[in-house]
Specification:
It is a single chain. The protein is mainly β and about 375 residues long. It has 2 helices and 32 strands. An 11-stranded parallel sheet has the order 2-4-7-10-13-15-17-20-23-26-28, with helices on one face. An 8-stranded parallel beta barrel has the order 16-18-21-24-27-25-22-19. The longest helix has 14 residues. The protein starts with a strand and ends in a 20-residue tail after the last strand.
Length: about 375
């Protein structure tokens, strides 16, 4: 039985010119029948939206860098598509070792990888092969675990988000480079995920963003830098592990957590490095405190410790030193900000307390919290 399908055997041509959408989709549809793999040999393939199917692995050979194109490349044909790869309903599917190119941000709001549930009609017991497919009505949920994985992919130059995950439950994005998209590197509206060991660079939006809810997500080992919408910008979020990331030259805060219809809560931030945050963006006109490393507003049960903070200019010594402020806090309840190092962490103030707190908060033993930095960049004065 054949369970590995080569797209070139279905008519795909890696010449960077020929439309190979039909060939790719045929290979994917055939692979779905046996829960197989679709192989993409090196070369550049032109495609419109591809619909991945459950338990199908779309895999190529990676050969890309920040600016280099190489290996297996799928390039968006034009701007009429809503995305390049749609993984909605592709439970257990995986995309790996492929470079996805948005054709110089063609179209409007065209995403690279895409998942979106329009409603809550899909049920956990919709798989007839499951032994437990009949479950009590009170245990049924609006949609089941997606379990999609995006691994070792390069997602670049889309007019929307690099990876758009809306109403998702259970996902993994790892070892990816998601750069130079007009939207965010990763947009999340959902739960139970892992975003690990990725590079998120020069996107017009944030590195990781939600305007609705983001819960039970682990964000570790990522390099998040030069994104115009900030580093990690979340509202209504909970149960997050933000650990061991490197933030460099974020436009605005490297991390901004804000309570909306409910407060951000139960979040751990530790072992992160914050460097040169607070680069100018439009929102700083509205709130000068956006010129900071971390902004916490409307949060409870947050633990923040073991992080380091640095100021700096743009590369080659351009621009002013930033950020102006280190950590900005407002409306906290039962939060602990302990054991961070802020020596050299800001130009004006290391800790800005905007008040409105409730409950017991612990803010102590943060090295270098006293005194302010200077713009001359001399060690010993709070900046470098």
């Amino acid at each position: 039985m054949t369970n590995v399908f080569d797209v070139t055997e279905f008519g795909a041509i890696p010449d960077g010119i020929t439309d190979s959408t039909a060939a790719f989709q045929k290979a994917i549809d055939e692979a779905e029948k046996v829960k197989g793999a679709v192989v993409v040999p090196p070369g550049t393939y032109i495609c419109s939206t591809l619909y991945l199917k459950p338990s199908v692995c779309l895999m190529g050979n990676s050969g890309w860098g920040y600016r280099e194109q190489g290996g297996s490349i799928i390039k968006l044909r034009d701007g009429t598509s809503h995305c390049l790869i749609d993984m909605t309903g592709a439970f257990g599917a995986r995309v790996r070792d492929i470079q996805l190119l948005g054709n110089r941000c063609t179209g409007e709001n065209v995403h690279g990888i895409y998942v979106k549930w329009e409603n809550q009609e899909s049920r956990l017991h919709d798989d007839p092969e499951r032994e437990d497919n009949e479950i009590p009505e009170e245990c049924q949920i609006g949609f089941r675990e997606d379990s999609v994985t995006v691994e070792n992919c390069h997602v670049k130059n889309f007019s929307g988000n690099g990876v758009h995950l809306e109403r998702i439950w259970a996902f993994t994005v790892k070892d990816c480079m998601i750069i130079a998209n007009k939207g965010n590197a990763v947009y999340i509206r959902g739960w139970d995920g892992w975003i690990t060991d990725c590079i998120m660079h020069t996107n017009h939006g944030a590195g990781i963003f939600t305007d609705d809810i983001c819960a039970a997500v682990t964000m570790t080992g990522n390099r998040i830098e030069w994104n115009r919408g900030g580093g990690i910008d979340l509202i209504n979020s909970s149960s997050l592990n933000i650990t061991g990331n490197y933030f460099d030259r974020s436009y605005g805060p490297a991390i901004k957590l804000k309570g909306g219809w409910y407060d951000c809560n139960n979040i751990t931030m530790t072992g992160n490095i914050f460097n040169r945050s607070g680069k100018y963006r439009e929102s700083i006109k509205e709130d000068k405190y956006d010129n900071c490393h971390v902004y916490l507003d409307g949060c409870y049960n947050i633990a923040m410790s073991g992080n380091t903070f640095l100021t700096g200019k743009d590369d080659f010594g351009e621009s002013e030193f930033g950020p102006d402020y280190g950590i900005v806090i407002k409306r906290l309840n039962s939060c602990a900000i302990v054991g961070n190092t802020l020596f050299g962490g800001s130009v004006k103030e290391k800790l800005v307390d905007l008040g409105g707190h409730t409950g017991e908060n612990c803010i102590s033993e943060n090295a270098g919290i006293t005194g302010t930095g200077t713009e001359d960049g001399k060690l010993g004065n709070g900046s470098y």
